Amino acid sequence: MMADPFRILGEPKIGGILIIGDHASNAVPGDVALGLDADHLNAHIAWDIGVDPVAHILTQDTRFAAFLGRYSRLVVDLNREEDEAGALPSESDGRRIAGNDLDEAQRADRIARYHRPYHDRLETLLRECRPALILSLHSFTPALKTRPDEARPWDVGVLYNAHEAASKTAIRFLQDAGLNVGDQLPYSGKLLNATMNRHAEANDIPYVGIEMRQDLVGDAAGQARFAHILSEMCHFVSEQLGLTT
């Protein structure tokens, strides 16, 4: 029996804080052959390094729960609309993903198995246990192989689309904490924000989109540090915006 394409950590609560990690895993289900070796599956192209352990630490606080993708972003990219080509990427940072050369029927089957159930369950969860705040948690590589001359010096990036209040408040907190903060960096939430557009903005749920730099969350000390910072950030944002957590 196929496992659900999501995992839930902690107990989601009405008025709590929900972490959403679309790319928290590099696992590949047994019926999918991507044509990649272990080195590629452990690299940034396959998942958001650091998200899973940071989410586990945060959810030790009962005010937090987490909804995490179970499979690699190369199996299906959950932070894309299902009809986007990038939902089943044919390449990532210069690496061809041969297992995603699919015909129309195969593509539809992959979406039906791994993309749609994730978003359907998240939709139900938010309806039943509407959080006060969503923490959209991602991470970024310090350097892309295909863009070696493009500097990515930020400790953390903050992303948002039309709903800016929570993220702008978070930026102020993170800067005051001494971090080098990328406002809409390393890319803009106005261009890539599918999960938050659908589940947060469409439902008028405040959210902060976070991108952690992967070399800073690659070990236990860095993960604990970021979990502490993000916990304090979420509570600061909640207080400043008058949210209940």
From TrEMBL:
InterPro entries for this protein: N-FG_amidohydro (IPR007709)
Matches recorded under Gene3D superfamilies: Zn-dependent exopeptidases (3.40.630.40)
Any one Pfam family match given in the protein's UniProt record, by short name: FGase
Keywords attached to this entry: Hydrolase
Single GO MF annotation: hydrolase activity
Protein name as it appears in the record: Putative N-formylglutamate amidohydrolase
Organism: Sphingorhabdus rigui
Lineage, uppermost ranks: Bacteria, Pseudomonadati, Pseudomonadota, Alphaproteobacteria, Sphingomonadales
